Amino acid sequence: MEKLLCIKTKTTFPGMALLLFGFLAGMIIPNLVYRFTWKQQAFSAVYLLGTYGRTAAYGKEYLYQIIGMRGGMFLLTLLCGFTVFGVPLAVLSMIFTGLGLGMVFVMSILQFGLAGGAVAAGLLLPQYLIYIPVWMKVYGMVYKESRAIWRNHGIFPGKVSSYFLNSLLWTAIFGLGILLEWYINPWILRQILGFINFF
What we know:
Layout: H1 2-6, H2 15-36, H3 42-55, H4 59-79, H5 86-112, H6 114-124, H7 128-150, H8 157-183, H9 185-198
């Protein structure tokens, strides 16, 4: 009986598979919608114009907007690690992250041609080089802790302190991504837009 209790089942989070699934769906859906429904391409135009508009903002107001947009869901996910909602939230978050990335790329290309691919890349750099690895780690951590609760293993003080310290570390790294999105990303996007306009 003791041996059975000591056996640890693998609780690996399929983050990359979920991200790629979402990305693939994000690439397929706009093509179908573009072809059959939205001939005016309204959604992609509104999204991209809205994003371009945000790059004109400077200072604290723009920083607060990014913190609210990125940080709210990030902190909610961390809090759900100690609830039964952590597993579905982690899975859905990775799928929707991939879906969003795929849709941004495809719809910008459908709307603006090959130049739209460069613009879509400009929208994501350099902050997503930090966001994606952090999301993979955090959602994996949340998935593992929440799954243990699903299996009635409970919450132990040692696990809580470890989870809390890891959360602080990943939050600090995620904060670096927010600073890059606030300060560096608008400059990169302006350079890309200026290069496209030059040609």
